[in-house]
Write a structure and sequence with these properties.
Helices cover 96% and strands 0% of the residues. The protein is mainly α. It starts with a helix and ends with a helix. The relative contact order is 0.04.
Length: 93
């Protein structure tokens, strides 16, 4: 009885595999593969546009941040220079 079960499973698997291969290689299946691939390519293009936009925005933000830090450093340098001048004037008096 156990041998018949194994044989039935083997025959069923073989039939299922044969039918599956026929389905996967049919004209309708190829149309589906084509549409899915086309949708994937459209999605890739959309994602790449979004990535480019994010990169451009990140570049703008980085440039603005560098400008802000340069302005801040210049302001601090001017304040330090003014404080040193004030200290020198206070010591002379």
């Amino acid at each position: 009885m156990h041998k018949y079960t194994k044989l039935a499973c083997f025959v069923g698997g073989t039939l299922f595999g044969s039918v599956g291969i026929k389905l996967l290689t049919s004209k309708d299946a190829k149309k589906v593969y084509t549409h899915v691939t086309a949708a994937g390519l459209r999605m890739k293009d959309s994602v790449m546009e979004t990535v480019n936009t994010v990169q451009e925005n990140a570049g703008d933000i980085l440039a603005s941040a560098k400008d802000l830090n340069e302005e801040r450093a210049a302001k601090e340098a001017a304040e330090n220079e003014a404080a040193q001048v004030c200290d020198c004037n206070c010591e002379e008096e």
